[in-house]
Write a structure and sequence with these properties.
Blueprint (H helix, E strand, L loop, with lengths): L1 E4 L2 E4 H11 L3 H7 L6 E4 L10 E6 L5 E8 L5 E8 L2 H11 L1
Parallel strand pairs: 2-6
Antiparallel strand pairs: 1-2, 3-4, 4-5, 5-6
Length: 98
């Protein structure tokens, strides 16, 4: 079942898996994508047949998250998954906000 929150949408079952594995709700992930310092890129390497984007941003819980999403019809962004940023991602983020 899909959940819609603002301009975001996600699968509730997938969210449960991510909460259990990583402790991240998709609502928190969605908010991380609105970080004014967020870095974005295309995830063509892993998904060449589907337009997926990655966003590296800080959530309201002050966690740097890497969020994978795809644009849906209209103004919706589908959150696919999210995890806490690794060392290289943190270094990239810190370089861009200096």
């Amino acid at each position: 079942m899909d959940i819609r929150w603002g301009n975001f949408i996600w699968n509730s079952e997938k969210e449960k898996l991510v909460i259990n594995a990583r402790g991240i709700t998709f609502k928190e992930a969605a908010m991380a994508t609105t970080d004014p310092h967020a870095i974005r890129g295309s995830d063509e390497l892993h998904y060449p047949d589907e337009e997926r984007q990655w966003t590296l941003g800080v959530s309201p819980k002050n966690r740097l998250l890497l969020v994978i999403s795809t644009e849906q019809e209209g103004p919706l962004t589908r959150i696919i998954t999210a995890w806490e940023a690794g060392k290289e991602d943190k270094e990239l983020y810190e370089k861009t906000i200096r």
